[in-house]
Amino acid sequence: MLKIQELLIVLPDLVITRSSRWTVPVTVAGLLVCAPVAGHGQRPATGGESPPSLAGHPLLHLSAVGTSKAEPDELIAGLAATGLSSSPAEAQRQVNARIRKATEVAARASGVELAVQGYSVAMTEDRPVRWMAQQTLELRAERADGEALLALVGQLQEAGLVVGQLGWQLSRQNQQHAIEAADVAALEALRSRASIAAQAMGLEVDRFQDVRLDQGTQPLPAVAFGRQASSPAIPPQSSPQAQEISAIAHADIVLKTPPPSAGR
After folding, report:
1. Does 48 lie in the same domain as 135?
2. What is the number of H-type helices and E-type strands within the chain?
3. 50 vs 47: CA distance, rounded Å
4. Which of 3, 37, 45, 162 can bridge 49 by disulfide, Cβ–Cβ 3.0-4.6 Å?
5. Strand partners, 243
6. How many C-beta neighbours within 10 Å does residue 261 have?
7. Containing domain of residue 252, as a range?
8. Which 3-state string (H, E, C) describes 137-186?
């Protein structure tokens, strides 16, 4: 999952820094907003200015959740080649042969990226002792090439590889956009809740302070396990489903008594 450490969010009338390390005074429709990171003290105001006094002002603590949805645009499959023998060298030879075959087949699949990953050799608990060698590989394709990746997975299963993971996910760029949209939605929901709560008490919002954004839910790619290598090479199926990302906005809202109506 992607975590943004320094995310600048810009609304028509709101600028706030996410996960900054100092208090940032900003303006929300003429109101003062301060956004420090939780756990860090506020820096003294610059220019000799003193922070606004809270004396006689009710303080409202609020949180609000914002969500965004995005269509997954990247298909990922994880497969493993294994070898089992009484000789560690023979077990490795089996793995090497399967990986070599897999790379040859994958090279003919348009739009599919292949990455050969970890390699391990270990003694099993069988008696007599046997050795197991294993190497994993990852296939990755954009949405337009998803069918080609699924067909390739079926071919690699026929060649003796086993699927350990198969699922759709957001690319880094689209995930970042979804996180930013969730942050904005959370801030808008917080501002709306503050206004409604203040009106219910016969008050109005004076200013926001101690605004904080936390990351909410982020979905993981779906996981599917492969068939036995001896079964027919039927390409697996996987359909992308919209994924939801959420953010949580917290703030202390300073309230005030509304000014007298004109003519009173």
Report:
1. no
2. 3, 11
3. 9
4. 45
5. 70
6. 6
7. 7-71+173-219+245-256
8. EEEEEEHHHHHHHHHHHHHHHHCCCEEEEEEEECCHHHHHHHHHHHHHHH
